[in-house]
Structure formats: structure tokens, C-alpha cells
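Exercise: predict the fold of this chain.
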Amino acid sequence: MMTLPKTLLQIAGAPLTPSALDRSALILIDHQLEYVTGAIPLSGIEAAVAEAAKLLDLARTHSVPVFHVVHHGRPGAAAFSPQGPYAAIMPELLPIENEKVVIKSLPNAFAGTNLHHLIQEVGRKELIIAGFATHMCVSTTTRAALDLGYRSTVVANATASRDLPLVDGKGVIPAEIVRQTALAELADRFAIIVPDTAILSSSGV
């Protein structure tokens, strides 16, 4: 019988429990219409948005600080133009009073923004991360969070990706393989991966 490989976190004996709500901040990344009806539709986006809405509701119920990160490209750009209709946040995930909105221009939500400072202000050392796309801004931000000293949990079903071309131009990597690969890479060293919001809710505060 083949032995399953271990992640680096397992090899190191690191704790694998998800982040507790009372120690965490929620980071929602690029939950914008560009990924629904704009230039970059994602596979499975409807289900991922529904899961993200559950996660947002859980965070609000437990007074978890929430940070909405949105991407703005150059004015008039093919995607994420600040003046275009698709840079807007999805209606299911709109911020409410006291929830901060951070505007970024790079995949890493910490790069060139005050996100790290805002999280430090609320005194949270752990992050719960969800959003779009799994292989791009979610992955890049989660990796950067480790460099900044955060412990991260990613809610897998509140993320989504898209088909990508093979680098030789002779085929396509399906969106679900892209998503699962990105999550597996993060699970190796950068984050605890949980399937859904229910896991966080059942683990208490």
C-alpha cells in the first residue's frame, strides 16, 4: 500500500487546526464583478461566492475584523478598470460599516497597500483568506502573509480559478486542477486549508 506524502507542515509537526475566529481577521480578495460577468469569468464562481457569503456572515456574527481587498488596474484597462462597471464588489459581498476596503494594483494584497498596518491595528495574528483567483491573488497574498508573520487559513470552497494554457501552447489545464494545485501548494507550507465555512463554525472561537 502506497504511503501518502506529507506536507512540510506535517513533517515539522506544526499545528494543523484552522485559525480561531477570536484570533483572526478575514481577508476577502478581489470579490468583484470582473470574475462573474466581466473579462475574466471563473469556473464555479457562483458556488464560491455563495460560500464566501457564508464566511462573511460568520465573521460578522463573531465580530471578526473584515478587510475587503479589491483590484484596480489602469484606467481603461481590459480588466479591472476603476471606471468600468466590473471593478465593483459583488452585491452578495458588499462591505458594511466598519469594514475596511483596501485597493491594490498587484496580486499581493500587501504590496503597496496599508493592509498589514490595518491588521496590526486590530491586533490579529492569524488570517482567514478567501476570494479570487485561487492560483493568483489568493495564493500570492497567502504566501506574503507568511513573510509578515501571520498564520493563515484558506477556505477552499470560497475560492475559484480558471482554465490556463499549457506553457507550450498545446493544451489547457482545467480550472479545477489549477485550483486544487494552488491549494495543495499553499497547504504544503503556507496555510491551513479547510474545505468550507462549516469547519470554522464547528471549531468554535
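Check your answer against the key: The chain has a mean pLDDT of 96.
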